[in-house]
Amino acid sequence: MNTADKKDLNFTNLGSDKFERDYDKEPIVIKNYERFFVANLLPFCIFATVVVMLGLDYFWPEFDKTPRQILVNNIILGYFIVQGLLYIIISYYVCVIKNRFEVKFTSNFICFYKNDKIERKLASCDLNLSKSFWLMPSSRIIEIIFILMCILILCIGLWYFIVIPIALNILFKLFFHIVFSGRLKGFSIFSAIVINGLPQSDQQLQYSGYLTGLVANKNYLLYIIDKKTYIEVKEYFEQKSDIEMDKIKKYYF
Q: CB neighbours of 170 closer than 8 A, spacing ≥ 6?
């Protein structure tokens, strides 16, 4: 069998000089960091904001502090830092080291795997994709609620409760992008693609699970780290779902 014949095994001729990849014979398989990021991002931003505010308390001269108040402040600050680090370390072990989460793209399906067992299977021809800053399924209603909350916070002068969580969100993603990829290149605050193709009842469960910060959602998010994988997935969606990833709707709330 010559080289051309071998190539035809993995690609389908489209009637021109272009070839379409046969994803059944050569599927895309990516390591998915969904569980880790969903379990950590929102809790980190909330608790780290508390830590930052407690830290800034030392630099607010208008409040005179007694030694007892300083001690209590230090204890609370230390508690949040230790608990936060332990939570991240444990979830990293569980979500990244102990278990293997992967997503496989074939010609007709996108399959979410945990330790080689399928947990969710989606038809590639029926997808609704979006990109979310907070890594959660979103909608216009949720976006409006968050905007109204932000306006209220700004009106009462607590702007730092908006700025600090947003900054922490970006820093968290940036730090673990470097951890997982080993480089800064390719970083994006919208590295996650939400596949929101679930029945409405399941979507509601996802919203409540994420917003409580207690239950990590499962198998609705593709967290893409490296550029090569992004290009492969982009080509897949263009071929199978007629979706251009660069034009996917972005949700900031």
A: 189
